[in-house]
Design goal:
The protein is built from five helices and five strands; from the N terminus they run E-H-H-H-E-E-E-H-E-H. The chain has one domain (3-138): Gcn5-related N-acetyltransferase (GNAT) (Aminopeptidase), CATH 3.40.630. It has helices spanning 13-26, 30-34, 40-48, 98-112, 129-138; strands at residues 3-7, 52-59, 62-73, 80-89, 115-120. The longest helix has 15 residues, at 98-112. Helix content is 34%, strand content 26%. Strand 3 (62-73) and strand 4 (80-89) form a beta hairpin. It is of the alpha+beta class and 158 residues long.
């Protein structure tokens, strides 16, 4: 089986929906990825813009992994960073080099867009040990703290 890494465009809504399913399975989080899916028009707009990057790994035309990343334009210099928001590979295709191939393709996309760095967050729990091993192999580790700041709706509803 040949592995194909493909960057999604606005014409690839079906592949983006398949990627959402892959994320749901890989992260065991159906509510987040399947519970309230965006419309096809929303996905077309997202995939057609310049602030979001979606890559899929295909084997025999089926999505077996992917990356969802965001482009962050910087203010202090005329450059950008890319944040890997989600990266997942289907359980039966892990340890086949799929994640590494996805990241290598993202590096090419980043270079073409003039980004100077790609960054990713991994949790310190046991469930993220494979991700930490992968990212350590491919990049420089920085230990940081991450904080989620709650945003309440303007209408006062909770």
């Amino acid at each position: 089986m040949t592995l194909e890494i493909r960057q999604l465009t606005r014409h690839d809504v079906a592949l983006m929906e398949a990627l959402l399913g892959t994320f749901a399975d890989a992260f065991d989080d159906a509510d987040t990825y399947n519970g309230n899916r965006p419309s096809a028009e929303y996905l077309r707009e997202l995939l057609g813009g310049d602030a979001f990057i979606a890559l899929v790994a295909l084997k025999n035309g089926h999505v077996v992994g992917g990356i969802a990343a965001y482009v962050l334009k910087k203010f202090e210099q005329q450059r950008s960073e890319i944040c890997i928001y989600d990266l997942a590979v289907a359980l039966i295709h892990r340890r086949e080099g799929v994640a590494t191939a996805l990241i290598e393709k993202l590096k090419q996309v980043a270079a073409a867009r003039g980004a100077y760095v790609i960054f990713v967050q991994a949790d310190t729990g046991v469930e993220d040990e494979p991700a930490i091993a992968l990212y350590t192999k491919l990049g420089k580790r920085e230990d940081v703290l991450h904080f989620d700041l709650e945003v309440k709706p303007l209408d006062g509803a909770d």
